[in-house]
Design goal:
The complex is a heterodimer of chains A (711) and B (100). With 711 residues, chain A is mainly alpha-helical. Helix content of chain A is 72%, strand content 3%. In chain A, the strands form 2 sheets. A two-stranded antiparallel sheet of chain A has the order 1-2. Chain A has a two-stranded parallel sheet with strand order 3-4. In chain A, strand 1 and strand 2 form a beta hairpin. The longest helix of chain A has 77 residues. The N and C termini of chain A lie far apart (98 Å). Chain B has a single domain, classed as Helix Hairpins (Orthogonal Bundle). In chain B, 14% of the residues are buried. The chains are: A mainly alpha (711), B mainly alpha (100). The interface between A and B is medium-sized, with 13 and 13 residues.
Chain lengths: 711, 100
């Protein structure tokens, strides 16, 4: 254990509250929520998340005063022999950065969700789910806090599984209807897919954890990391196995190749969930895990090379798919996978600060984009509602009635020209898109540039993959902006779309300002000038990671990526902006690119390939196991024939015929017949003549007396 | 004074006669009388022994025997009357309905 340093006057001991505020919030909502109404439920949940943010901010302040890692023990957990795991909170600059991102973005999304879910439950006609939604959101914040604040791999794993559960619950939030409110199990299936894909990853994580305990004798971070040089020298394969198995967990949680397939489907959840869990926070848990395990990853360069390549490949691969999608949220989902690839690549290259920097800025602008997409979708739904029900009271319609005709409010081909209808959403989306595309001086520029710079130094192949991915990023964001906001409305619905209420747009404005200013967190040195506040994050994280990378703005790298981004936006304007696509028109890229675009459009048939490669063989194996092994062999043959048949044989043949009939029965019957025979003989004495009896008595008396006398 | 053995001899003779009567005769009334004879043979032996030992307990016991004999006669005669009413006979050999 770390020695406890004097921390009087600081707020380190408050750290358990980051978990308990959300828990209190969800308990209040579970117990009293039914009687309190939507507004109060949402307010309590937001306050709980906000309180966690305040505590995180106090912790950040304390760390600024006292930058050493502080471990706050909280409770004993598992004490079995050599296995000693306590629930302790680790307060260092890395975990507090994560806490700030999680609770800060989380609080904003809670507030947004008050407005969003009000409309969503109205459109889908089940108001009672409102409370459940906020209970799940609070639970998610609590679990994410456990994940980032745990002081051992086991506590991290508790949070890891907890957020996986929340993800499952929230993807399948509308488990009985699809995004349009029609009865369907699509969302429930998406939830299962996410859960199972994560199980595959967790399997790797669990094995990694077992190896860690076997080799290092502890789960506690400091104890594990202290032994890394020793183990790396003695048993280098342990480090490779642990890091690669952990990478499987990372691939599951942070949606990397090959386990990323669940994330696009996870967009079935309500949009605030997509923003909070599947873009800003939970999916970054994998990146956090790599950064947290930096001492393990840093010692083996081939592992680092592999991680970086995997991240870059994911970034590029997902970016190409994003460019071929039509659903506004699907584009953002693949974009998230791609950006997570950037982070994993950065973490793999050892650029941990860059990874966390990009994690934070990405949380800002991707949450902004997702929430704004939700606002746009609801705007479209309002327009649709308006059209179907005329100008009547919009509150009188139940779900189902306005869904008679199939209309997808999230399909970008149904949009167009929303710039005038939803002005606020338009400007906010533009900021988010530019930040994501990496345009100077928005947040995305700084964080992405730092990753690219790092790649250009040591990993040229990663650099080229990432810069092409960045090109695609700018391209699909441009495509999206032109398709959604510019040109003429392609449907009547888009022409009648309405702006969202303030409760939804105000949190977006906060996120937008963070997306603009987020670069200040870790601004690079420009042309040798170090502005005040530069390298803030690097120095801050240096206390946890033991290194401070001095990011420098390389004009060639930065210039090249800016040129690529601008070029991509120009291309997207040429294709989608200059001449807006018409209603029902095919994507203009479809013809020139042919099969390539067909592949992009259909996600390169990854789902189908998995279906063919894994799911179908798995099904046949399970069918074989169920029909042949379990039913035919185990049940029919072993159980029925061997056990039941054998038992019957023993009972009928052995017991019934031999032991029972000839043994026990014969004994009982023999007693009966013996008694009968004896009585036949003895009956003769009972002749009814009183005098005979008297004589018998007399003889008896004489015999007894004679015996007594002659004795 | 007559020696005790004389009394005992008479008592033995009387008892034997009674026992023979019970075993040989068929008339229930005669059997009854024979039983009385055996009882009184017993009484005679009691009294003789009491005299010999100069105690009263033997003589006292005789009174009990006489009482019991009287009660027995009362019950026994009633039984005989009841049997005679149903069977029109008091021949004990005919009362054999309990035989096996």
């Amino acid at each position: 254990m770390m020695p406890m340093v004097t921390t009087s006057g600081l707020f380190f001991s408050l750290v358990p509250l980051i978990v308990f505020f959300p828990v209190i919030g969800l308990l209040i909502n579970i117990i009293f929520g039914g009687r309190m109404g939507e507004k109060v439920v949402g307010t309590i949940a937001s306050l709980a998340a906000g309180a966690a943010f305040v505590v995180s901010a106090l912790l950040a302040y304390s760390l600024a005063m006292h930058p050493e890692t502080v471990i706050v023990p909280f409770a004993e957990w598992i004490h079995i022999g050599a296995l000693q795991i306590d629930w302790a909170f680790r307060v260092d600059t890395l975990s507090v950065t994560m806490m700030l991102v999680v609770s800060g973005v989380g609080t904003l999304i809670h507030i947004y969700a008050i407005g969003y879910m009000h409309e969503d439950v109205r459109f889908k006609g089940d108001v009672s789910r409102y409370r459940r939604f906020f209970v799940f959101l609070n639970l998610f914040i609590a679990m994410m806090m456990i994940l980032v604040s745990g002081d051992s791999y086991m506590m991290l794993f508790v949070g890891w599984e907890g957020v996986g559960l929340c993800s499952f619950l929230l993807i399948g939030f509308w488990y009985d209807m699809d995004t349009l409110g029609r009865p369907s199990f699509a969302n429930a299936n998406a939830a299962k897919k996410a859960f199972i894909a994560n199980r595959v990853g967790d399997f790797g994580f669990v094995i990694a954890g077992l190896i860690i305990f076997w080799a290092f004798g502890s789960f506690q971070f400091d104890q594990v990391f202290a032994k890394v040089p020793e183990i790396a020298a003695a048993m280098p394969w342990v480090i490779v196995a642990v890091t690669l198995l952990m990478l499987v967990g990372v691939a599951g949680k942070s949606a990397q190749i090959p386990l990323f397939v669940w994330l696009p489907d996870a967009m079935a959840g309500p949009t605030p969930v997509s923003a909070l869990i599947h873009a800003a926070t939970m999916v970054t848990a994998g990146v956090y895990l790599i950064v947290r395990s930096a001492p393990l990853y840093s010692v083996n360069h081939s592992v680092q090379y592999f991680v970086a390549t995997l991240g870059a490949a994911t970034a590029l691969f997902a970016a190409t798919i994003a460019a071929g999608q039509y659903d506004i949220k699907k584009v953002l989902a693949y974009s998230t996978i791609s950006q997570l690839g950037f982070m994993v690549a950065a973490a793999g290259m050892g650029a941990y600060t860059a990874a966390i920097f990009h994690l934070a800025t990405h949380a800002f602008f991707k949450a902004l984009l997702f929430l704004d997409a939700g606002s746009i979708i609801l705007g479209m739904e309002r327009g649709h509602h308006h059209l179907v029900h005329g100008h009547g009271d919009p509150h009188d319609a139940g779900a189902g009635t306005h869904n008679a005709e199939v209309f997808d409010p999230g399909d970008m081909r149904n949009m167009g020209g929303l710039r005038d209808k939803m002005k606020v959403s338009y400007w906010l989306y533009l900021i988010g898109a530019l930040a994501l595309a990496g345009i100077f001086p928005l947040a995305g520029f700084w964080s992405k540039d730092e990753i690219l710079l790092e790649a250009s130094r040591n990993y040229p192949h990663v650099y080229w993959m990432l810069i092409i991915a960045a090109f695609f990023t700018a391209f699909y964001m441009g495509r999206q902006v032109w398709m959604v906001f510019f040109g003429k409305p392609r449907t009547e619905v888009a022409a009648h779309a309405e702006e969202s209420p303030k409760i939804m747009t105000v949190p977006l404005m906060v996120l937008a300002s963070l997306s603009v200013l987020g670069g200040l967190l870790n601004m690079a040195t420009i042309l040798g000038f170090t502005l005040p506040g530069s390298h803030l994050l690097a120095e801050w994280l240096g206390h946890s990671l033991g290194e401070a990378e001095a990011g420098e703005l390389n004009l060639i790298v930065a210039g090249l990526s800016t040129v690529f981004a601008l070029l991509a936006i120009y291309f997207s304007w040429l294709i989608y902006g200059r001449k807006s696509i018409e209603t029902g028109q095919l994507d203009p890229l479809k013809k020139p690119l042919g099969p390539v675009f067909f592949g992009m459009e259909n996600k390169w048939f990854i789902d189908e390939a998995y279906q063919f490669l894994f799911i179908n063989p798995y099904r046949s194996i399970s069918k074989f196991l169920a029909d042949k092994v379990d039913w035919a062999f185990w049940h029919d043959w072993f159980h029925d024939r061997v056990i039941a048949g054998g038992y019957n044989w023993i009972t009928t043949i052995l017991l019934d015929q031999y032991v029972d009939q000839r043994g026990i029965d014969a004994l009982a019957n023999g007693l009966g017949t013996g008694t009968k025979r004896l009585s036949t003989v003895m009956r003769a004495w009972q002749n009814g003549l009183v005098r005979t009896y008297a004589l018998t008595v007399l003889v008896g008396v004489i015999v007894i007396l004679g015996y007594l006398i002659l004795k | 004074m007559v020696p005790v053995s004389y009394y005992l001899a008479i008592s033995g003779i009387l008892f034997t006669l009674g026992a023979m009567g019970v075993l040989i005769r068929r008339n229930a009334l005669v059997i009854f009388m024979s039983i009385e004879l055996m009882l009184n043979a017993g009484n005679l032996a009691f009294v003789a022994f009491a005299r010999m030992h100069n105690t009263f307990s033997g003589q006292l016991f005789v009174f009990f025997v006489m009482t019991v004999a009287a009660a027995e006669v009362a019950v026994g005669l009633a039984l005989i009357v009841a049997i005679f009413r149903t069977k029109n006979s008091i021949n004990v050999d005919q009362m054999s309905s309990l035989k096996g």
